[in-house]
Amino acid sequence: MGIINVNKMTDAAQIDCEGTLKVTLEFSAAPDISANPTDIVLVLDRSGSMLGSPLANLKAGADTFIDIIDETTDSQKDGVIGGGSHIGIVSFDGTAAADVPLSTSVSELKTAVDGLTAGGSTNHADAFAKAVESFDPASSNERVIVMFTDGKTTAGPTPGPVAEAAKAEGIIIYCIGLVGSDGINVDDLNDWATDPDSAHVAVTPDEEELEALFAELAKNISKPGATQITIDEILNPDFQIVSIDPPSKGSAEKIDINSLQWKISELGVRGNEDAVLEFYVRHVGQTGGVKSVNQSLLYSDKENHSVTFPDPSVNVMCDAEVDQEKCLDPVEFSLDGCQDSLEVDLGDVYLESRGRILQLDVTLKKICPNRRTALAIVLTEVDCDGKEHSRGMKTLTVPAHHYPGCRDIKVKCIKFVVPEDLNVCGSGMCKEKKFKARVIANSIDTDFKCCETAVTL
Fold first, then answer.
1. Rounded to whole angstroms, how far apart are CA atoms 50 and 42?
2. Residue 318 — very low, low, confident or very high, per pLDDT cuts 50/70/90?
3. Residue pLDDT, tens place only, 329-371
4. How far is the C-alpha of 84 from the C-alpha of 36, rounded, in Å?
């Protein structure tokens, strides 16, 4: 199935200039086997060379294989092979036996595997033949044989033609080889298996690696939704990244103020899975209007899925521009057509002070996560007699931070304009002015709930 759902959204359709916005990326993936039923026959070598720990490691590998297929077929490890898929068990030494016909019962399959005992020679041809007979000719399910062996053929006819006939019928053959005491012919495994050999044959000299090989093969057969996922997000230059929450899957990092990268090793390998990333951006542009949040968003994975995320936009509300400065009166003059020069007195020009701009910073101490803060600053000017005159009040909401613990938050660049025409202690450019600022802050968000009291008489 691969990628089955993608989405990108914001927590608000409208923000103020320099406002903050939460952006959410999410998508889902599922293994193909959940939508494309597959019948699998495990063909397991129980010849004499498997006696002892090799057989024990084989059983562990087969049990893990069954568990993974159980989970990937219906997204739950419930003891039942779901989605219309089945698993059968064929074991062999000098002859082969169909221990379990195609079944959906995990307990029945594991009981057969756990009951295997080692002894006898090795008849690969009969093993392939019994596996082919296990499939239902009327079924439209994909058919897969997984052949495990630790040695060369020592009984029965040459197995190559039987394997070729199976492949000609559309059956996919995987081979797992353990280099046992009798040795193994890797060329034979390559001939029996479906091409390419690199995707259908695995050989190990270490019996303790068998469980990992069976697990990897089960993932390949179930066709994981997506692996080696990378998402590169570049914001519209009007926005900058404030913070990134840890994603539900994988890891995410800020590359610079306008871009981030999210990586996930695999998604939808054993069932339907969701991945969610939340991050916060702030508007830093000079203009308002309807703006796309991202400039580009690129998705890639090993399976080369084609994925397109939505492109959400937000309406940024900025105040209208007001120009209070009046144009200066011009000095008019003219030059006659035949004049080469003209001397004009443009009058006197004086430097003017139009007031002061105060830019204040304040640090809020020990602000807890996920709580907004209401902040107010009251500014007064002190005249020559010590009397205070109001020069303004600013109130603002400081967005919540999402770090794990309480931390100090520095609020910068809070601006007050003090025009010169409000002079309270004599006129004159560059004359000293005295001010007082009072700061009030409190948390907006709280978990307090007023209890309701009921009295019964």
1. 16
2. confident
3. 788 888 887 878 888 888 887 766 667 889 999 999 989 988 8
4. 8
Query: What's the Cα-to-Cα distance from 438 to each of 218, 320, 375, rounded to whole Å?
Result: 67, 29, 11
pTM: 0.56
276, 252 contact by CB (below 8 A): no
Tokens 């899975």 belong to which residue? Answer: 273
- Hey, what domains does the chain have and what are their CATH numbers? 2-31+225-317 (2.60.40.680), 33-222 (3.40.50.410), 356-443 (no CATH)
Beta-carbon neighbour count of residue 240 at 10 Å? 17
Q: What is the largest CA-CA distance in the chain?
A: 124
CB 357 within 8 A of CB 415: yes
Q: 315 near 255, Cβ under 8 Å?
A: no
* Two structure tokens written together for 42: 């495990």
Question: Would you state the structure tokens that stand for residue 98, as one six-digit string?
Answer: 């169909």
Fill in the amino acid letter for 98: A
- Residue 337: what residue type? G
Q: What share of the chain is helix, strand, coil (3-state, %, to 5)?
A: 20, 40, 40
Q: Backbone phi, then psi, for 326, in 5-degree steps?
A: -85, 150
